Amino acid sequence: MAKDTLPAPEVPEGNEVFRCACAADLSGLVGLFLELTDDMDVRIPCERDVQQIIAASIETGGRFSPRGEGRLVLVAESQETEESRVIGMCTLVFSSNCWVGALVCEIRDLVVSRPERGRGLGARLLEAAFREARARGAVLASLFTESSHGEACSFYRSLGFQEKSCTYFEMRL
Ligand SMILES: CC(C)(COP(=O)(O)OP(=O)(O)OC[C@H]1O[C@@H](n2cnc3c(N)ncnc32)[C@H](O)[C@@H]1OP(=O)(O)O)[C@@H](O)C(=O)NCCC(=O)NCCS
Which residue among 7, 27, 31, 72 is least crowded, i.e. fewest CB within 10 A of its CB? Predict the structure, then answer.
């Protein structure tokens, strides 16, 4: 969908900041990712691999090619306690897309920690992701979710995402 099809959701301001992840966020991000896999009812093969992959995304985050290709992990951090607490995350993957003729941004691994859900944080996190993506020159934001995941589909529709029908194929290598 084009950027002008993504209206800013009307959600109350929260008490959190949105920023790129840093090394100190690692254990919080792994915990959030495990919540996500649990919600999706997916068993991950090895938790240590998850930790290493997230650590690598944090480390390479912010290193972009001259065309703007690269990735970053965006976190929502609660400001309610002295101690920093990561309460939401998503990964933004930027690539040049021939079909669109421009830079596009794929949103992956979006999750809000369970006690924080339903108060607009997911919507604000996506708004922050759109701001970041537009600032980097992306003209389109996209994401995949399973059609059986009705709650996530309702969430994305409520934010103005247009649904595209496509069939996803994969092959074990
Ligand atoms: C999906 C998720 C990120 C939404 O975050 P959230 O902070 O709970 O959502 P928000 O409070 O910002 O909701 C914004 C709007 O989305 C819609 N929405 C959110 N959750 C919904 C649900 N379970 N069912 C239907 N609509 C929902 C509502 O319209 C809501 O607006 P409202 O405040 O008027 O009700 C969060 O629930 C989550 O982490 N879920 C588990 C992981 C997951 O499914 N990730 C997506 C994988 S693709």
Answer: 7
Cα–Cα distance, 73 to 50 (Å, whole number): 14
Prediction pTM value: 0.90
* Nearest one of 64, 63, 73 to 21, comparing CA atoms: 73
How far is the C-alpha of 167 from the C-alpha of 173, rounded, in Å?
19
Q: Which of 24-28, 34-38, 44-48 has the lowest mean pLDDT?
A: 44-48
Identify the structural domains of the chain with CATH numbers, from first to last. 3-158 (3.40.630.30)
Alpha carbon of 149 to ligand 1 centroid (Å):
11
Does residue 14's CB lie within 6 angstroms of at least one atom of ligand 1?
A: no
Instruction: Give the residue, out of 11, 155, 159, with the most ligand 1 atoms within 8 A of its beta carbon, to mutate for a pocket test.
Output: 155
Would you say the CB of residue 123 lies under 6 angstroms from ligand 1?
Answer: yes
Summarised one tens digit per residue, pLDDT across range 120-136 is 999 999 999 999 999 99
